[in-house]
Amino acid sequence: MTDAARAHTGLGREGLWALAGVVTEKLVALGIALYLPRHLGLDGYGEYALVLSTLAVFQALPDASLEAVLVTRLARAPAPAALAGRGAFVRLGASLAGAALGLAVLLAVTGDRATAGAGAVGALGFAANAASPYRAILRARLALGRHLVLAAAQAGLAIVLLALVVRAEGGVVPVLAATSAASVVGLVLGRALVGPGARWAADAALARAMAADAWPFAGTTLSLVAAQQVVLPALLVRLHGPGAVGLLAGAQKLVEAVGFIPQALMLSVLPALSAAAARPGGAVATAREATRVLVVAIAPAALVLAVHARELLVLALGPALAPAAPVLRALAVVGVLGATGTVIANLLLALGLQRALLRVTIGSALAMVALGVALVPSWGATGAAVAAVVAMASGQGALAVGARTGPDVRPVLAAAARPLAVACGSVAAGAAVGGPVGALVAIVAIYPAALVASRTVTRADVARWRTGEASS
After folding, report:
1. Is residue 170 very low, low, confident or very high in pLDDT (cuts 50, 70, 90)?
2. Least confident piece of the model among 127-131, 144-148, 349-353
3. Strand partners, 8
4. Closest CA to 288 of 126, 175, 418
5. CA–CA dist 432, 307 (Å, integer)
6. Mean pLDDT of 357-378
7. CA gap 309, 307 in Å, rounded
8. Among 170, 171, 193, 174, which Cα is nearest to 182's?
9. Residue ranges of the alpha helices (H) in 351-405?
10. How far apart are CA 301 and CA 423, in angstroms?
11. Which residue among 156, 204, 279, 361 has the highest number of C-beta atoms inside a 10 angstrom radius?
12. In whole angstroms, what is the distance from residue 445 CA to residue 448 CA?
C-alpha cells in the first residue's frame, strides 16, 4: 500500500460510499422485514424470525470478528488477494461450524426437523457470505464504490428472487432459499468486480492466528449484547412485565437510527486505521479525525432525541410509546457513546490490543448487570437505560486511564469534547425557541454557525474530510 493510502482516514468519498452501502442493505432488510409478515402470516414469519435469529447468534465469529481481523491484515498485506482467499476459507470453516451449532439448537428447541431443514437453507446464505473474499478485499483497498455496487447488486437480486417466491406463494423455505441464492451469486459478482487471485486454500497457521485475534473481539461484542439485550430485558419482564421491555425496545429503536452511522463508517475507517498503525501515532491520529467527524454529525441528533423524546416517540412509534420518553432521554447519550466506543474498539483492534478491550468490556458488562439489579426494581425501563449508559461511559473511562490503552484512547475521547459542547449549546438555544421548530432551527442554523464561529470546524477541516486525508 502506498504512503498516500496510508495517510487516508477512510472518511471523505470512501466514507460516503460505505454509508450508502449500509443504508442500501438496511433499507432492503427493513423492507423485507416489513413485507414478510403479510406474505408468510404470523406463524410463518415467527418461524422465519426464529431461524434467522438463532443462526445469527452462532455467526458472530465469522461475520463480525473474523471479517474485521481479516480486513486489518489485508490493509497491511503486500499481496492481499492471496491472503483474502486463505482468510475466507477460515471464515467459511467457522461459519459451517456455527451453522451446525445453530441447527442443533433449533432442533432441540423446536423438536421439528422441518424447521431445522429451513435453517439449513438459511445457513447456506451465511456460509456464502463468509466464503467470499471480495468484500474484505474491497474494504482493505478502500474501493468502497465497488463495494457499494456489490452490496446493491446482491440486495437487488434478493428482492427479485423474493418477488418470484411471493408470486409463487412460496413458504419459509423458498424465502430463505431466495436470500441464500442471492448470497451465492454475490460470490460471482465479487469475482467480476475484484478479479482473479483470491483462491480458497487451507492455512492452519493463519487460522490459528486469526482465531487468536478474533475471539477477544467477539467476546467484547457478546459481553455487551448479553448484558444489554438479554439480562436487562429479563430483569424487566420479571419485575415489571413485557410492557416495560416494550418501552426499552422502542427507545432503543430510535437510538439505533443514529447508531448505524458509525457502524457504516467503520467499513472504511478500520482498514485506514490498520494501514496507519504502521506509522508511529498514525492510527491514533486517524481515530481522532474519525471521532471528530462522527461527533459533529451525531451529537445534535442525539441531543434532540433527549430534548424532544416524547414528541419523537409518538411521531415514530405511536402514542402507546409516549411513556418511554424518560427511557429515551437516558439512552440518547448512547448515540455519542456508541460513536466513540466504535472508533475506540476498532482502533484497539488495529493496534492489537483487543484483549485489553475484552477485559474492560467484561467489567463494563458486569457493572451494567449490577446497576440493573439495583435500579430496575424501582425505576423500571428507565433504570435499565441508566444502567446501560453508566456502564458504557465507565468502560470508556477505564480504557482512558488504563496503562496499556490510555495513551491511545485519551486523544480519541478528547476529540469528542469540543463538538459535543457546541452541540449542547446549540440544542439548548433551540429548546428556548421551543417545539419542533426550535429543534429544526438548532440543527439547520444555530449548530452549523456555532461550529464555524468557535472554529470547531474550519474550511481546512472540511477540505480534508472531503478528500479523506489524514491531518498533519
Report:
1. confident
2. 144-148
3. 469
4. 418
5. 11
6. 94
7. 6
8. 174
9. 354-379, 381-401
10. 9
11. 361
12. 6
Query: What cell does 122 get?
Result: 438459511
Grid coordinates 457493572 are at which residue? Answer: 367
Hey, what's the cell of 144? Answer: 468502497
Name the burial class of residue 129, with classes exposed (0-12), middle (13-18) and buried (19+) by CB atoms within 10 angstroms of its CB. buried
* Helix (H) / strand (E) containing 111: none
Q: What is the pTM of this model?
A: 0.81
Task: Compute CA 390 distance to the chain's CA centroid, rounded to the nearest angstrom.
Answer: 20
- HSE, side-chain direction, 13 A CA sphere, residue 245: 14
Q: Is the dihedral of CA 368, 372, 375, 381 positive or negative?
A: positive
Model confidence pLDDT, tens digit, residues 422-450:
988 888 887 777 666 767 777 778 888 88
Residue 328 CB contacts under 8 Å (≥ 6 apart), including other chains: 251, 254, 255, 305, 306, 309, 312, 313
* Percentage of the chain exceeding pLDDT 90: 32
Q: How confident is the model at residue 5 (pLDDT cuts 50, 70, 90)?
A: very low
Angle at 95 between CA 89 and CA 98, to 5 degrees: 145
Query: What counts of helices (H) and strands (E) characterise the chain?
Result: 21, 0
Angle, helices 144-167/242-276, rounded to nearest 10 degrees: 140
Residues 6+ apart with CB under 8 A from 32: 158, 159, 162, 179
Using an 8 Å Cβ cutoff, are 220 and 345 in contact? yes
In Å, what is the CA distance from 147 to each residue of 274, 281, 339? 18, 29, 23
Q: Which residues of 343-374 are buried (b: 16+ CB within 10 A; e: fewer)?
A: bbbbbbbbbebbbbbbbbbbebbebbbebbee
Q: Which residue has the cell 421551543?
A: 434
Other residues' Cβ atoms within 10 Å of the Cβ of residue 109: 12
Which of the 8 DSSP states describes residue 62? I
Give Cα 33 distance to the centre of its chain.
18
Q: Residue 6: is its pLDDT beyond 50?
A: no
What DSSP letter does each residue of 193-221 carry, written as one string?
Answer: HH-S-------HHHHHHHHHHHHHHHHHH
